[in-house]
Amino acid sequence: MSTPKKVLMLPGDGIGPEVMRQVQRVMDWMTKKRGVNFDVTEGLIGGASIDAHNNPLTDETLAMAMEADAVLLGAVGGPKWDNLPFDIKPERGLLKIRKEMGLFANLRPALVFDALVGASTLKEEVVKGLDIMILRELTGGIYFGQPRGIEERDGVRVGFNTLIYSEPEVERIARVAFDMAMKRNKRLCSVDKANVLESTVLWREVVERVAKDFPEVEVSHMYVDNAAMQLVRNPKQFDVMVTTNMFGDILSDCAAMLTGSLGMLPSASLGAADANGKRRALYEPVHGSAPDIAGQDIANPLATLLSFAMMLRYSFDMGDDATMIETAVQNVLKGGLRTGDIMQPGMARVSTSVMGESVISELNKIA
Ligand code: IPM
Ligand code: MG
Fold first, then answer.
1. Residue 1 in this model has a pLDDT that exceeds 80
2. How many domains does the chain have?
3. The pTM is what?
4. Which residues are catalytic?
5. Residues linked to residue 190 through DSSP beta bridges, in sequence order
6. Which of 122, 160, 262, 266 is the most exposed place for a label (fewest CB within 10 A)?
7. Which residue range(s) make up the domain with 188?
8. To test the ligand 1 pocket, which listed residue (13, 45, 73, 95) has its Cβ within 8 A of the most ligand atoms?
9. Does 64 map to a domain?
């Protein structure tokens, strides 16, 4: 057996636990068939943690995350916790774990599987073969800027947040983006609002400066409103996109939908590399906890399985195994199996667990 790979599973809320179970099955398969040694622990986050500890992310879970080689998260949130005070809402747990682990680089690939071209609301020629990577800055910007709050000023209540980026914060995400562009098609589009916001005037300057170290990469800059439009008009013009925390939040949902369903999209959030080149990392599907369909075994587990594949690639240097899982997913889709979110005429509607089982049957064929 290989050295143990310490994985912390945080299933979270809603459909989180049921989609996570399918990953557990693939992990068991990899242990049995390929001798991979996973040392798995499980923890609570979000609403599940609020119910147990009145806190969306306890110090204990955070310490486990810091200890792990990689974290896999399901989803957080749901109507049950919507009316809680802002500071203990499930989402605070997610934001806190990203911040505390220093996961500043959020990779959100939007890939259209051939078998799913018809599931997109856009025309086939617009999305067929689409493969873009959105790099979202994840621990800065308006999500975390100080001061923030709600207070009374001159007898009027005001709510305020601060959009702030330092040069080092922009530089480190820009470097990840350029590295990524070098490994792909050497095209990078940086998205900002430099016609209005000083914070992104600085953003653009720093991206330009970093670009000098990557002369092979063709860089462009786009205002975020235009980028949103271009993503829908002609998404294939993009290869790698890099942007701020909030713009990335919005654009990645938009890009995700080009692929037909949020249920297909994985993500990786990475920290800075240590002396050995290792990065703290958390992997999660882009979709939410989908409380309306939770517990019914009908959710799409593929985004979580694909997030696990990203874990193999980025945290464990197991690119071949990652590709194997991605191929298995592709084959299952080619075979006509669909969960409800990606259902198309003439296809077979299957449950979460049958989808997981089918991925394993495919793995057995191609391994
Ligand atoms: C995401 C989500 C989160 C975010 C929420 C749940 C806090 O929308 O991961 O995109 O805004 O980052
Ligand atoms: Mg979002």
1. no
2. 2
3. 0.95
4. 143, 193, 225, 249, 253
5. 221, 242
6. 160
7. 131-258
8. 95
9. yes
The predicted model gives 225-247 an average pLDDT of 98
Could you identify the atom of ligand 1 that is nearest to the CA of residue 138? 12
Task: Dump pLDDT digits (tens) for 186-212.
Answer: 999 999 999 999 999 999 999 999 999
Give strand pairing partners of 187: 218
Give, for ligand 1, the residue of 92, 94, 244, 246 to mutate: max count of ligand atoms closer than 8 Å to Cβ: 94
Residues 251 and 266 in one domain: no
Closest among 250, 238, 362, 236 to 302, alpha carbons compared = 362
**Residue 97: which residues within 8 A CB-CB, separation 6 or more?**
45, 57, 61, 62, 65, 71, 73, 103, 282
Of 74-78, 136-140, 259-263, 362-366, where does mean pLDDT reach its minimum?
259-263
Assess whether 247 and 283 both reside in one domain.
no
Task: Out of 224, 258, 292, pick the residue that ends a domain.
Answer: 258
Q: What is the mean pLDDT of the chain?
A: 96
The model's confidence at residue 227, banded by pLDDT at 50, 70 and 90, is very high
Q: Is residue 252 part of a domain?
A: yes
Q: What is the CATH number of the domain that holds 248?
A: 3.40.718.10
Of all protein residues, whose CA lies closest to atom 5 belonging to ligand 1?
91
